[in-house]
Design brief:
The protein is of the alpha/beta class. It folds into 4 domains: about 200 residues, P-loop containing nucleotide triphosphate hydrolases (Rossmann fold); about 60 residues, Alpha-Beta Plaits (2-Layer Sandwich), CATH 3.30.70.1510; about 150 residues, 3-Layer(aba) Sandwich (Rossmann fold); about 60 residues, no CATH class. It is built from 21 helices and 23 strands. A 6-stranded mixed sheet has the order 5-6-7-3-8-9, sandwiched between helices. The chain has a 6-stranded mixed sheet with strand order 19-20-21-16-22-23, with helices on both faces. The longest helix is centred in the N-terminal third of the chain and has 16 residues. The N and C termini lie far apart (about 50 Å).
Amino acid sequence: MSVAVASVAALVKRYGDGPAALEGVSLTIAPGETLGLVGPDGAGKTTLLKLLAGMGRAEAGTITIADDVRARLAYMPQSAGLYDDLSVAENLALYADLRGGADAAARAEVLDAAGLTPFAARLAGQLSGGMRQKLGLACALVTRPRLVLLDEPSVGVDPVSRAELWALVARLAGDGTAIIWATSNLDEAERCDRVLLLHEGRVIASGPPTELAGAMTGRVWRIDIEGTRARRVLAAALAAPDVIDATVQGASVRVVTASAEPGPLAGALAQINPLPLSPAPARLEDAFIAALGGARLEPSPLTEAYRTIPPHSGPMIEADRLERRFGDFTAVGGVSLSVGRGEIFGLLGPNGAGKTTSFRMLCGLINASRGTARVAGLDMARDRAAAHQQLGYMAQKFSLYATLTVEQNLRFFAGAYGLARGDQRRAVADALTMFALDPVKNHSAGDLPPGFRQRLSLACAIMHQPPVLFLDEPTSGVDPLTRRDFWSHINAMAERGVTVFVTTHFMDEAEYCDRIALIYRGRMIAEGTPDALKAGAGADTLEAAFFRLLADEAVAA
């Protein structure tokens, strides 16, 4: 048995008079081991990493890290802490000096391992989200640490960049480096040797991912839709007895039950249509959901509260040969698409492919160099003010007023969208209730946990109940339960006729979309339903199709 690189025993940490952030947490990690920290927002993951990094003191318990390991410990917080006005190479050199020095050869090696050598002279502030995260990781690794603490290193990172991060971490572990990886992405956690599930500051489950997932065998089911609307089947499954979770996967619905008995689920489905029900492989996320008591099963309040969007004679969102150039660089070159009433349309692509630029042109946030963008039939170039009244917009980064309270932000946006005073009061009260924000209504928005921030952002975006909704990475950095809540709201709005345009790096989320477009190097390279894209790429999963389509395009280029 290897000597532990670090150990924690009965750790307790409190902030003020509230509940303990950590309560009796214990763990060990060996050389070359990768330990995943998972849990809902506020579970204590970040607090634990900060204490291990020496940032703060615990009220009780012990942290043991050998002196030679402590001297070679690296910590990457959620925000990478880069200097935007320094180049990639300059950031790396600065962090190397701060952490005891690393020669030019070592810096070149870590740059190459992170795939950043071609961008060494680029300013950090000009990097895409994926490259920023890789640079942050490179800065943490430049002095060859023996223990690495990573706090959500892949937030906002596309599947390609995520795979590169995983490969880099696997290489480190193979060289004997111990890694503690906090993540809200359970696919990432499945790659770890062991996982600790935290909830309300306590460890409620631990073990190898395969072992935790294996305990759910016999409780996971696949429903083939066979032409029935996915969201209708999803609603029926969530209402069925014994169901603790259900998600859309293209032309099927994946269901997790509290027991291994499918009878109650089959009975509920028979009331819609006798749909095929078959066993499905269990995943770590299923164990996560079960350990936390299951997903929220009641329908979103928006099912009844949101107005019904009347039929529209044409597309609700339309792009016709959209182009955007920055000097000699073409960020988007000739994107065309059409999205109808009540449709959920997903835009996918690697970081830097032109997704965000396309998204912002369609929202009217930036002007197109050529081509047209229309929302609800209104031209973004000629009728921008009127078009903005027809849409809601949720930015990828938290962009509300951090110093205002939750309620004050809601009031501000209700007024900004032109609601009458009485309507403002009703809209704010409804938002506080429907998005479960009432307990934090007097809290400053900037102090909210990530899940509450995202809920507040969505609530502000729909204060005027727009017929079109633009969501840019709406669930980035939040846990699976919060993502479930988000998509229950999105599905409810789509059922009321709202057109939803969404960008996401989560392939399981993309499965919720009616159609998907894949953009690469500023051009659309594929478009269709999730299942059509999988079939066209000859892939079993959407992520595999994503990689295959990008690889084919790169070869063709």
